Amino acid sequence: MACRPAALRAGARGSGYLLANHYSLVTVLSAQSVITTVAGNGRVLRGEGGPASLAALGELQGEEHWAMVVYFAFMDVKQVIEDFQDYLAPKLDTYEQAIYLYLFRHSRLQGKDEIVTGFVSARLRMAFGVGEKGKPMSKNTCYEKLQSLESKGCINIVDKERDGTGIRLLLPSEISGLIPQEQPIQELTLDELDFFNVPENRPAILRREGNKCFYCFRALNSNNYVIEHVTSRPEGNNTYRNVVAACRDCNNRKGNISADEFLRGLYRRGYLSATDFEARSDALTQLRSGDLKPSFP
Ligand SMILES: [Zn+2]
């Protein structure tokens, strides 16, 4: 039966989860992928630590295959190598890089969390060719570099035994603070946008007013309008609920009096008809309650 994954989910950087509920073979994992963990009921699931392509997975029988969800954590080797080269290598000297790759090759790449390595002999293989005059690194250098790798958070030295040193290697993505986290771009909500101090936001207010002065209906264009505070600062803010597009005359005359009072004055002096005055007063109420939202092209 072909693999029927319910979902393939991205996990932490360099890993992923295949969420499957009914299968006999896993065929979607690439050849680079290594199953490091299989969580299941243990009766039909095997393959921990082996290459994904060789994972032995049984078909679940009866109703349980619908009820059961299995997670496979696999390592994306391509991502690990990229992270190593881009983020970790610049922080390591050549000895440390060589030791790190040696440990990676013999632990995590094999699906093992931890290895015990005898460095007296392993040092001859792990950094071959980089030593002075082609010599392998000395025993002292090797231990010194292990210490510095540990202090840089790349490895945990678990214990030292007679036949070697127990080491747990951390992938670049597991080393705290190594890979900068992508900052999610914060989208400002409409209520947070500044329509007074941010020049590129201002035309949206002019458009909302239909290219007319909010108070007196005089025609406006992009060269002769001003952004006017309905409630003057500092009490009033720069949001779309408190700014309007106005002609310079209205802006100058209004000064610090309230917008309601200013509209009444325009009506009394004959600049606004009774109908227009009522319409403008209604618009003012709508503006304050957030009903007059500007739109962006
Ligand atoms: Zn006006």
Question: Which characteristics define this entry?
Answer:
30% helix, disordered N terminus, Arc Repressor Mutant, subunit A, binds zinc ion, 297 residues, 16% strand, alpha+beta, DNA Binding (I), subunit A, 3 domains, 9 helices
Structural summary, described in words:
This protein is an alpha+beta fold and 297 residues long. It has three domains: 5-75; 78-174, Arc Repressor Mutant, subunit A (Orthogonal Bundle), CATH 1.10.10.10; 190-288, DNA Binding (I), subunit A (Orthogonal Bundle). It is 30% helix and 16% strand. The chain has helices spanning 64-67, 77-88, 94-106, 119-126, 139-151, 202-208, 248-254, 259-268, 274-288; strands at 5-10, 15-20, 34-39, 70-75, 114-117, 155-161, 164-169, 226-229, 243-246. It has a four-stranded antiparallel sheet. A hairpin with a 2-residue loop joins strand 6 and strand 7 (164-169). Helix 3 (94-106) crosses helix 5 and helix 8 packs antiparallel against helix 9 (274-288). The longest helix is centred in the last third of the chain and has 15 residues, at 274-288. The radius of gyration is 34 Å and the shape is rod-shaped. The protein starts with a strand and ends in a 9-residue tail after the last helix. Residues 1-72 have low confidence and may be disordered. The structure holds zinc ion.
In angstroms, what is the radius of gyration?
34 Å
Spell out which ligands are present: zinc ion
Strand arrangement in the largest pleated sheet? 1-2-4-3
Specify the oligomeric state: single chain
What is the makeup of the main sheet?
Answer: 4 strands, antiparallel
Number of distinct helices: 9
Q: Which structural category fits the helices and strands?
A: alpha+beta
> What is the number of E strands?
9
Sequence of secondary-structure elements: EEEHEHHEHHEEHEEHHH
CATH class of the largest domain: Mainly Alpha
What fraction, in percent, of the residue positions are helical? 25-40%
In percent terms, what proportion of residues is strand? 15-25%
**CATH fold naming of the largest domain:** DNA Binding (I), subunit A
Question: From the 3D coordinates, which CATH architecture of the largest domain would you assign?
Answer: Orthogonal Bundle
Q: pLDDT average, as an integer?
A: 76
Query: Could you say which overall geometry the principal axes of the C-alpha atoms support?
Result: rod-shaped
| Uncertain stretches of 5 or more adjacent residues | 1-72
- Intertermini distance: 52 Å
